[in-house]
Amino acid sequence: MSLTNAKLSVIGLWKVFGPHPKRILQPEWRSRSRKEVQQETGHVIALKDVTFHVQQGETFVVMGLSGSGKSTLVRCLLRLIEPSEGQVLVDGEDIVRYGSRRLTRFRRRKAGMVFQRFGLMPHRCVLDNVAWGLEIQGVDRRTRERRAHELLETVDLVGWENSYPHELSGGMQQRVGLARALAADPEILLMDEPFSALDPLIRREMQDELIRLQVKINKTIVFITHDLDEALKLGSRIAIMRDGEIIQCGTSEEIIMSPADEYVGEFTRGVRKADILSVSSIMKPPKTRVYIWQGPALALNAMREAEEEFAFVVDSQEQLLGVVTFQAATKAIDRGAWRPDLHDLIEKAPMTLFPNAPVSWLLSKLLDYDWRLEALPVVDSEGKLLGEVHRTAVRGITTAIATPNAKEKAAQSA
Ligand SMILES: Nc1ncnc2c1ncn2[C@@H]1O[C@H](COP(=O)(O)OP(=O)(O)OP(=O)(O)O)[C@@H](O)[C@H]1O
Ligand SMILES: [Mg+2]
Question: 127 CA distance to ligand 1 centroid (A)?
Fold first, then answer.
């Protein structure tokens, strides 16, 4: 992913807790494991050479066991904890180099943080809690209260303006926390396990609400969680941390289908892969695609080259019109009647797929499909041919889903 169009880039970030972090950053220590460094020097390597890039509008999820460095990471992004080494680029500017005035401005305007334990001010009413970020920016009372009202409407808390945090349930308090983080309209939203203190039902509601809200506000979000379901639901990409390092970073499909190691596999165990994977993950470019104005001889050529029994037929806009089979094209040529194009020979594709359809849906559709054609077309919402799902890809996915991961294998053989 290129650095230039990333909204947020973290590059080679280190955080060492202890009296002499600089010493630990010297070559003889930096290659040693966290455990060794801690045992021999008493320093804790909380972040070890962390690098990732987040695009504008993306929800980037960070997962990892307790103590893996997630909170340290997200706090370093605002410099609530000072990094020991490395860069945090926001719109290409390294905020690690900011002086205190620019840093304050950055914190007030560009980035908002939602904390795990709400972090509301108990002596202030809901409205004043939400308006707080604008108050410290010096925004006048009327404007900030109007904005706070708007946000309370967004998070469905109208009528609670004058209540105090202790009068609200956990879910409601977290909504206030979210409204407060959004009040200054930051471009980046940092969320450190924002929903983990909530009971499961409220938690799911809050996730749905965040998804709905994100469609509207399109922020760049870094979201920390322990919970895989939450990560899969919210994240466009997921980074998995262990002992201060990112050990794998990718889409949920990549993490689930090819976990980097046992630790990652452990996180994804028990996930119904077919629900997570989409048609696009098993789609390939179409092997044989011909234009409607091409004749049967050209179509046959294309099929022979690809060793296929059929070809997809498209118009000049790449819209899928149907398929032509090897048999139909051969017959037309054998009959010797000259045909200028494929109009009379095409037939409707037996099924068309959308790229974001879940594989589980596809598998259920294919239960009694006879695979007369060896591949099915994938089209976009305008009917343009994007690719194909080949029979072998479906077979591959069925095997992958049925194959236990390393841990399950070990358990089975024990
Ligand atoms: N101020 C500190 N001084 C010394 N060590 C610290 C400090 N803050 C964090 N650590 C250590 O850094 C490591 C990472 O902590 P961090 O809070 O980032 O983990 P986490 O992934 O957020 O865990 P959790 O899921 O429990 O919130 C831990 O080993 C922790 O003990
Ligand atoms: Mg934490």
Answer: 33
| CB of residue 70 inside a 6 A radius of ligand 1 | yes
Protein residue whose Cα sits closest to atom 16 of ligand 1: 69
Q: CATH 3.10.580.10 region(s) of the chain?
A: 280-398
Phi and psi (nearest 5°) for 46? -85, -30
The whole-number pLDDT of residue 398 equals 75
| Ligand 1 atom nearest residue 72's Cα | 18
State residue 402's pLDDT score: 63
Kindly tell me the number of DSSP H helices and DSSP E strands found in the chain. 19, 15
Q: What CATH number is given for 55-273 in this structure?
A: 3.40.50.300
280-398 maps to which CATH number?
Answer: 3.10.580.10
Regions of the chain short of the pLDDT cut 50: 1-2, 406-407
- Distance of CA 74 from the midpoint of ligand 2 (Å): 9
Contacts of 386 (CB under 8 A, 6+ apart): 283, 355, 378, 379, 380
Give the pLDDT of residue 71: 94
pLDDT in tens, 5-32: 799 999 999 999 999 999 999 999 998 9
Question: What residue's CA is closest to ligand 1, atom 5?
Answer: 17
Q: Which residue has the tokens 């709400």?
A: 118
